[in-house]
Specification:
- The longest helix has 17 residues.
- The model has no long low-confidence stretch (mean pLDDT 94).
- The protein has a 7-stranded mixed β-sheet with strand order 7-8-9-10-11-18-19, covered by helices on one side. Strands 1-2-3-4-5-6 form a 6-stranded mixed β-sheet, with no helix packed on it.
- 45% of the residues are buried.
- 26% of the residues lie in helices and 22% in strands.
- The chain folds into 2 domains: 198 residues, Ribonuclease Z/Hydroxyacylglutathione hydrolase-like (Metallo-beta-lactamase, Chain A), CATH 3.60.15; 136 residues, Rossmann fold (3-Layer(aba) Sandwich).
- The structure holds zinc ion (ZN).
């Protein structure tokens, strides 16, 4: 068995191959896995290939894949041949995101590919529960010692207080978050604070999709870009769920000028509070990430107790270096690299 970073992540066996979150849907492999529907984990091309290998992913990921990439996937809960079994477990990153568990049938070794992952239970999200494996392919978005975050519960409580205070003073608020993942979490966590709720187009579309998938979200009205203040009332506060863009965005700048809109950012980058607020032009910011922080990455390693760790994405090199210092057998998985360590 061999792991390499070629078509995002490839795992090859004697006579078959799995591609994990592939950039190119290669019809010649035996199966593929899609962890979730963020663009950096999806194929680059929106052109439907003539043949699609068997796909393992969750129902929500297949649906979001169809909306974002444009063609449907005939997906499976698991896939196996005589060399391996590919299954999913909850990943806790976004609604119904998953982690891949691959069992090598030859020797019983277990390989875990985290995709993007979060071990914390947050609102409707069940955190990833790490388990013993032999090889761990671990995302390293926050793989730097400086990125240790407070809990979701702690930050959500502070954010609720701030939002409520602004609404009480008659100020509308914009909650900034990516359209898939964060926007649903913000809607679910804070939507009850105000009856007048709006969303930008991408977020509104995703709200409808997630409702159809069974997620209990607060209903919002669509804020059309070209008629940005229709329906908004002066002196009556409202909540706007907005993409994660800076306050220099045309719509936000207009609404801030006209309605004294308070802009609130939610991101792991808010760990550097003042820098983040300045960059985003935000009035307030809360440290809320869909990824596990540094401490949680170490917790995943502790509970997985792997013999080998491959770090991927984000701070892969930094995390591998730190883990090596601690005596772990860890290397960053770099594109095109194929070393002896890739075999196991
Ligand atoms: Zn993601």
């Amino acid at each position: 068995m061999k792991v390499k970073c070629k078509n995002r992540i490839n795992i090859s066996f004697e006579s078959s191959e799995i591609i994990l979150d592939p950039q190119i849907v290669n019809p010649t492999v035996s199966s593929m896995f899609v962890s979730h529907a963020h663009y950096d984990h999806l194929p680059r091309s929106k052109k439907k290939p003539s043949t699609i290998p068997p796909v393992v992913c969750s129902k929500a990921t297949a649906r979001l894949f169809q909306e974002r990439i444009g063609y449907s996937l005939d997906f499976h809960d698991f896939w196996e041949n005589n060399e391996y079994k590919l299954e999913t477990v909850p990943g806790g990153h976004t609604f119904d995101s998953t982690v891949a568990k691959i069992t090598n049938k030859e020797n019983g070794d277990i390989v875990v590919y985290t995709g993007d992952v979060n071990i914390e239970d947050r609102a409707y999200l069940t955190g990833f529960k790490p388990f013993k494996c032999n090889v761990l392919i671990l995302e390293a978005t926050w793989g730097d010692k400086d990125y240790r975050f407070p809990t979701y519960e702690h930050q959500a409580t502070l954010a609720r207080e701030y939002i409520q205070k602004q609404l009480d003073q008659g100020n509308p608020v914009a909650l900034l978050g990516y359209s898939v993942g964060k926007a649903q979490l913000l809607n679910y966590s804070f939507g009850d604070l105000c009856e007048k709720r709006y969303s930008t187009n991408a977020i509104w579309q995703m709200e409808q999709t997630h409702k159809e998938l069974g997620l209990d979200l607060h209903s919002t009205k669509l804020l059309a870009n070209d008629k940005m203040d229709i329906g908004l009332e002066k002196n009556k506060p409202w909540i706007l769920f907005h993409n994660h863009t800076s306050a220099r965005d045309k719509t936000l700048a207009f609404l801030k000028r006209k309605y004294n809109l308070k802009i609130i950012g939610f991101s792991g980058w808010a760990k550097n509070q003042e820098q983040y607020k300045y960059r985003m032009g935000a009035d307030a910011a809360y440290v809320m990430s869909d990824h596990s922080d540094y401490g949680s990455l170490l917790e995943i390693i502790k509970q997985s107790s792997p013999e080998k760790i491959f770090t991927v994405f984000g701070k892969a090199a930094e995390l591998a270096r730190e883990l090596q210092k601690e005596g772990f057998n860890a290397i960053p998985l770099t594109k095109g690299q194929s070393t002896l360590e890739s075999f196991f």
